[in-house]
């Protein structure tokens, strides 16, 4: 039999609520800032060159620390790591709101990224192991999927509302009281889980290698658009970051107690789910970024109106993830739901590639966004269920950190690649005499087609790697699935 779900001092659904609100707060912060950047620039006089670092100072530590934070959750207890991260995130958010110059804001954003990584690295691991019953487990993962995707969609709206009706400081202040409530409620509701102990995987050199490698890789990617892909900086730091990561992998294969047990990747479920997520998130960032630009720069919507335009996709994701995904997964199986959802996501991007210069929101954007929400709401819970169901409960923290790392790297690489193609296409059309709106739209069309290609590649790889499974098999305990890994036939 599998390991029983951890006990809590209160309703397990209260625990799920605390974890998902924490996840949504962290995801919101990654998107809410973008809308407020012009107001931030005016408010503290930050230079145009350094404005991007209000975003990057958060992204770099966030992407770099997820694996380490996830493993620490397994070793010292996921509750301890989660609540520590939430407290640090809330405190740093308060400091960001009080920042009076660019140096302090960028520094506090870095600390905020550290807190966000520490908190979010363990959330999926706790959500996935809260229930052993398949239906409830699917419902919990559906709630987490909504918190992640819905937070991304609502971020631009909330950022627009707070900036327009209050001021930019409140995009940070809002996190502080939420963080306090989460810590106070979480101390009582989140289960006390004894970690394996720091002796089980305290690989300090490995931790240094993976953290340095991931931070350097994220920095190289997010700054490549400014520095140039062929610049000395990119050509030196890119290989150096990969060298650190290769050194980390080599060390993990040799040490007795690795930080990241490489045996995890023998699970085709975990490996395939991470590959699919990488490709899907690489595409989804295209929707959030270039969809917002299309609505504002081509259709002429204000930032607040553009934010409102993303509410329907959040509503659809919430409806599917929270209301139907568990029943659909139980009825049809995770694999079927994953691939059906990915097909819808590809279709939505193809629909967006036909958006018009003189179009309307109701015709050119809304239908595609609804299909996108339906597809993502179906695919994300199934994808996470397949991945997390393939690891033992004691490895859930590192698997959760791996999922979050894949998401961050996929988003950073996807957006950087899409931006490069959009810029080249837009410049080419402008030089050929196209109007500004037509040139911009031509670039966005290319971004949506490439995003569809990303997701399609993920679909093909997932179909090749994931074995057919019956609905009744979904939701097996992680320990049972792990025990069965040796029976999975080789590709």
From TrEMBL:
It is found in: Cell membrane. Residues 472-491 are annotated as: Disordered. The keyword Coiled coil does not apply. It is a multi-pass membrane protein. Keywords: Antibiotic resistance, Cell membrane, Membrane, Transmembrane, Transmembrane helix, Transport. The chain crosses the membrane at residues 12-30, 50-69, 81-100, 106-129, 141-162, 168-190, 202-222, 228-250, 271-294, 306-324, 336-355, 367-390, 402-424, 444-466. It holds the Pfam family MFS_1. Residues 482-491 have a biased composition (Basic and acidic residues). This is DHA2 family efflux MFS transporter permease subunit. The lineage of its organism: Bacteria, Bacillati, Actinomycetota, Actinomycetes, Kitasatosporales.
């Amino acid at each position: 039999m599998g390991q029983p779900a951890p006990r809590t001092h209160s309703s397990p659904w209260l625990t799920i609520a605390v974890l998902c609100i924490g996840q949504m707060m962290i995801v919101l912060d990654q998107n809410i800032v973008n809308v407020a950047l012009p107001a931030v620039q005016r408010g503290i006089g930050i230079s145009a060159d350094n404005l991007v670092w209000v975003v990057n100072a958060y992204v770099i530590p966030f992407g770099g620390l997820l694996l380490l934070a996830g493993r620490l959750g397994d070793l010292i207890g996921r509750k301890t790591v989660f609540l520590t991260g939430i407290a640090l995130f809330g405190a740093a958010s308060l400091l960001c709101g009080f920042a009076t110059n660019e140096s302090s804001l960028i520094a506090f954003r870095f600390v905020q990224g550290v807190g966000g990584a520490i908190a979010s690295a363990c959330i999926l691991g706790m959500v996935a192991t809260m229930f052993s019953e398949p239906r409830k487990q699917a419902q919990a993962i559906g709630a987490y999927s909504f918190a992640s995707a819905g937070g991304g969609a609502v971020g631009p709206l909330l950022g627009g509302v707070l900036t327009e009706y209050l001021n930019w400081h409140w995009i940070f202040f809002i996190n502080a009281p939420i963080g306090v409530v989460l810590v106070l409620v979480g101390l009582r509701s989140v289960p006390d889980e004894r970690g394996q102990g720091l002796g089980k995987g305290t690989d300090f050199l490995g931790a240094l290698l993976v953290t340095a490698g991931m931070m350097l890789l994220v920095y190289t990617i997010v700054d490549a658009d400014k520095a140039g892909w062929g610049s000395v900086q990119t050509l030196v730091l890119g290989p150096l970051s990969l060298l650190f990561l290769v050194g980390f992998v080599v060390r993990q294969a040799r040490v007795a107690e690795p930080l990241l047990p490489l045996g995890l990747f023998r699970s085709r479920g975990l490996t395939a789910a991470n590959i699919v997520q990488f490709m899907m998130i690489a595409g989804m960032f295209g929707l959030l970024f270039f969809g917002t630009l299309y609505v504002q720069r081509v259709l002429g919507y204000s930032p607040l109106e553009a934010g409102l335009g993303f509410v329907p996709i959040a509503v659809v994701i919430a409806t599917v993830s929270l209301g139907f995904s568990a029943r659909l997964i139980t009825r049809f199986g995770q694999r079927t739901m994953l691939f059906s959802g990915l097909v819808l996501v590809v279709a939505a991007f193809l629909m967006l590639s036909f958006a018009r210069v003189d179009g309307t929101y109701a015709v050119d954007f809304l239908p595609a966004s609804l299909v996108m929400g339906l597809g993502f709401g179906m695919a994300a819970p199934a994808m996470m269920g397949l991945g997390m169901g393939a690891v033992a409960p004691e490895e859930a923290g590192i698997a959760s950190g791996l999922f979050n790392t894949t998401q961050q790297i996929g988003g950073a690489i996807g957006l950087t690649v899409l931006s490069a193609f959009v810029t080249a296409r837009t410049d080419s059309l402008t030089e050929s005499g196209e109007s500004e709106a037509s040139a911009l739209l031509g670039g966005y069309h290319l971004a949506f087609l490439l995003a569809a290609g990303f997701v399609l590649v993920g679909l093909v790889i997932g179909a090749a790697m994931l074995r057919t499974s019956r609905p009744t098999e979904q939701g097996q305990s992680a320990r049972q699935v792990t025990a069965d890994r040796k029976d999975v036939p080789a590709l």
